[in-house]
Amino acid sequence: MNIIPLSDHVLEDVIMPFESYMFITTRRFIEKHDNIPSHTLSVFVRGQRNKFLLDDLSSRKEGLSFFNQNMKAVTGHLPVGTDVNCFILYLEAETSDEIDDENYIDAFEQLSAVVELFSKEKDSIVAMVPHFHQVGMMPHIHILHQRKTAEHDILQDYILEKLS
């Protein structure tokens, strides 16, 4: 499985519409997915992994609220674009045998271990939400994380270094 992280995407000041998309919390975004697998999304807070059911809307909303409340504890307000970095990490199957949820979940779990370490080392907050069956898209993972400096692609570089 090839791991292909894109560069950071700049978010507007108000990030709630993006969060609704990332955490798949509104009908409009739910309908863009052929299937939401029975797995989890993760929110890491300073190295502590917190899991929320991916195939349960209430649990996804709980994960979103958990991310926002932890960010608010750090920033003093609900997160805005200048508080976070976000990017997509594509999962590209090398062979047709790799195209299934089990392999995507395995890749997600391997990446989660790396992100958990990043979150601990950098004393930061990170959310990871898999989108394996979004219509017209390659399987991917959305990652939203606390921004501490003006640097970009910090987590992507960290992931690539740890996986090499």
- Major beta-sheet overview: 6 strands, antiparallel
Query: SS-based structural class?
Result: alpha+beta
The rounded distance between the terminal residues' Cα atoms is 13 Å
Mean pLDDT: 90
Model description:
The chain contains five helices and six strands. It is α+β, with helices and mostly antiparallel strands. The chain has a six-stranded antiparallel β-sheet, sandwiched between helices. The longest helix has 21 residues, at 101-121. The chain is globular and about 45 Å long.
Question: What is the structure about, briefly put?
Answer:
The protein has 164 residues and is α+β, with helices and mostly antiparallel strands. The chain has helices at residues 16-22, 27-30, 57-75, 101-121, 154-163, and strands at 2-5, 40-45, 48-53, 84-92, 125-131, 140-146. A hairpin with a 2-residue loop joins strand 2 (40-45) and strand 3.
Tags for this entry?
single chain; 164 residues; alpha+beta; six-stranded antiparallel β-sheet; 5 helices; 37% helix
What's the helix and strand layout?
Blueprint: E1 2-5, H1 16-22, H2 27-30, E2 40-45, E3 48-53, H3 57-75, E4 84-92, H4 101-121, E5 125-131, E6 140-146, H5 154-163
Antiparallel strand pairs: 1-4, 2-3, 2-5, 4-6, 5-6
Helix pairs in contact: 4-5
